[in-house]
Amino acid sequence: MRRTLKAAILGATGLVGIEYVRMLSNHPYIKPAYLAGKGSVGKPYGEVVRWQTVGQVPKEIADMEVKPTDPKLMDDVDIIFSPLPQGAAGPVEEQFAKEGFPVISNSPDHRFDPDVPLLIPELNPHTISLIDEQRKRREWKGFIVTTPLCTAQGAAIPLGAIFKDYKMDGAFITTIQSLSGAGYPGIPSLDVVDNILPLGDGYDAKTIKEIFRILSEVKRNVDEPKLEDVSLAATTHRIATIHGHYEVLYVSFKEETAAEKVKETLENFRGEPQDLKLPTAPSKPIIVMNEDTRPQVYFDRWAGDIPGMSVVVGRIKQVNKRMIRLVSLIHNTVRGAAGGGILAAELLVEKGYIEK
Ligand SMILES: NC(=O)c1ccc[n+]([C@@H]2O[C@H](COP(=O)([O-])OP(=O)(O)OC[C@H]3O[C@@H](n4cnc5c(N)ncnc54)[C@H](OP(=O)(O)O)[C@@H]3O)[C@@H](O)[C@H]2O)c1
């Protein structure tokens, strides 16, 4: 029998933290054992948390006291999940890795360290081997693995599946993102109610930068097409939905490509997590909807057999012989953050980087 792994959730009261608590409370072998925060330290979790997700605070968790973010208090913890805010996360995660802990981070601080994996388990699982280099170079017993920006994942998952099999020329992406993507309390209501808030050039650029890294890793050892030949552009926005980033993608190809074939490719896309039957792996990482007016954020963000873990794709149309259009919908705090982190942990356990 497998032993139960104890997890610490740093930032457990945040919007990503609550999804970790919710998902791990039903996990077959990873249990939330330590909840850490900042302003809520010393108080019972059930009293301070704003449970802005489905269900209720699990009974066995409600009375747990929120503790400080200190590795010395977590001797018996096996995995650290770190949805800490940008800036606060970086040094804390390094400290934990140095002390020997496996750290899975949803924060941006280490996403572009060349020896830190930026992991989407179905797309670039081989990048886990960067951990060996990371440990050697930094003389750490532990390590850091990151998950990409939720917005980047909503595009990278379908684009990665396409990029593997077709001669892609480029993709133009327009995002319509939910409020929870900005954490709690997030955007002032007067900026976003009755409005579409452009997120600006900086957000557009970081989205593209992460997708480029992931696509280049998807195509390892394959020269054709070269990534430098691929153009990507993004225009990002936020609107007043609660969860779920909706993205419109125009994808162009270097040769004639039929939308129907691409649709089949997306429907049949599977990765290592599905082969290994990891507990948080959805049987379909991409769900393709055929109805002309789906996916819709309200109805489809929890789709799939592991709710919120599938990217829902639809409106696949031929624009011209070398261009298709599609839309994608990702649950930003589940597949785009906590669920992606748990799936990464499960893969790290299978690959022997976290002791079973
Ligand atoms: N929201 C998303 O859709 C999403 C998706 C992908 C990645 N991410 C990333 O995940 C991280 C968390 O996002 P979020 O939306 O969950 O944010 P959030 O709702 O603002 O939550 C922040 C959490 O961090 C804790 N915290 C703040 N400063 C801290 C510090 N100095 N030391 C220890 N704990 C601290 C807070 O604890 P107290 O309540 O106790 O103060 C709270 O639990 C960010 O880096 C974000 O970029 C978010």
How does this structure look, described?
With 356 residues, this protein is α/β, with parallel strands linked by helices. It contains 12 helices and 12 strands. The chain has helices at 15-24, 45-48, 59-62, 89-98, 130-138, 150-165, 189-192, 200-218, 259-268, 272-275, 297-300, 334-350; strands spanning 5-10, 30-36, 79-82, 102-105, 143-146, 168-177, 197-198, 231-238, 245-253, 286-288, 311-320, 323-330. The strands form 2 sheets. Strands 7-8-6-9-12-11-10 form a 7-stranded mixed beta sheet. It has a 5-stranded parallel beta sheet with strand order 2-1-3-4-5, with helices on both faces. Helix 11 (297-300) links the parallel strand 10 and strand 11 (311-320). The N and C termini lie close together (10 Å). The site of NADP nicotinamide-adenine-dinucleotide phosphate (NAP) has 30 residues, from helix 1 and helix 12.
